[in-house]
Amino acid sequence: MTNKVLRRLPIVVGGLGAVLLLINRLLTPQLTQSQSRGDVVGVILSAVLILTGLIWQQVQPRSPDTVELIGEEGFVLAADLPEAVKTELAWASHLLLTNTVTRSLVVYYQGKVLLRRGILGTKSEVIPGVILKQVLEKQKPIYLVALKVYPGRLEFDYLPENTQGVICQPIGNQGALILGANAPRSYTKQDENWIAGIADKLAVTLS
User: Residue 105 in 3-state DSSP?
Assistant: First the structure.
C-alpha cells in the first residue's frame, strides 16, 4: 500500500503544481518578465514530476495478489516409509513452505503419494495428467505461472481448488515434487533453483 502511494506521489504533486500555476496566471492582472520565467520553470518541474510518476508506474510492477487457499492445513506421510525417508521429506517440505511462496505441496514417487503438506486439497490420490506425465517423461520442470488460464489445470485436483501457480519439479526419473502457490507469477528464479536443489536431494534419498 505504501509503495502504491509513493509511486503516485510525483503525479499528484506535478498535477497540483501545474493547476496552481494556471490559477496564478489567470489571477495576475499584469505579468512581469520574472514571473513569466518563473512560470516556465514551474511548468517544466511539473512536467518532470508527472513523467517520473508515469515511469514509476511502469518500472515498478504490482505485487501479485494473494488469495487464501481453500482447504485445511495438514501433514500426511505414507505410513510404510523408513524413518530416515520420513525425516528427509519432513525437512524438505518444511524448507519449501517456509522459504518459498509454496502453500501446498505433494511428493509423488513411483506411482505413490509419499507426502502431502500445507493446505491440502480434497483429493489425496494423484492421477498423472498430460502435464505431470510430460515432467516424468522429459525430467524437466514445468512452471504454470497462472494456473487458472491453463486448460490442464483440472489434473491438479489434488491441490486446493483456488491454487494460483504450480511448479512440477522432477525427482530423478521416478517422481515429481508438485508445489502450489497462493499468488500467480510469484515464484522467482531463485525459488526455482532452490526447489530444483531440494528435488535433487530427495532423488538421492528415495533411490
Answer: strand
Residue with cell 503525479: 11
Return the residue matching grid coordinates 518541474. 45
Q: Which among 82, 85, 9, 13 has a CA at the least distance from the CA of 42?
A: 13
Say if residues 150 and 108 touch (Cβ distance below 8 Å). Answer: no
User: What pLDDT, in 10s, does the model give residues 126-175?
Assistant: 999 999 999 999 999 999 988 888 877 889 999 999 999 999 999 988 99
C-alpha cell of 188? 522467482
The pLDDT value recorded for residue 175 is 94
What ranges in the chain are assigned the alpha helix state H?
Answer: 2-27, 33-59, 83-99, 130-138, 189-206
Q: DSSP characters for 152-180?
A: GGGGGTTS-TT--EEEEEEETTTEEEEEE
Short-list 199, 88, 195, 77, CA closest to 143:
195
Residue 44: the pLDDT is 72
Task: Supply the pTM of this predicted model.
Answer: 0.69
Cα distance between residue 90 and residue 115, in whole Å = 9
For residue 137, CA distances in Å to 68, 70, 73, 141, 153 come to 33, 31, 31, 11, 19
What are 165's three cell numbers? Answer: 501457480
Residue 70 burial (CB count, 10 A): 12
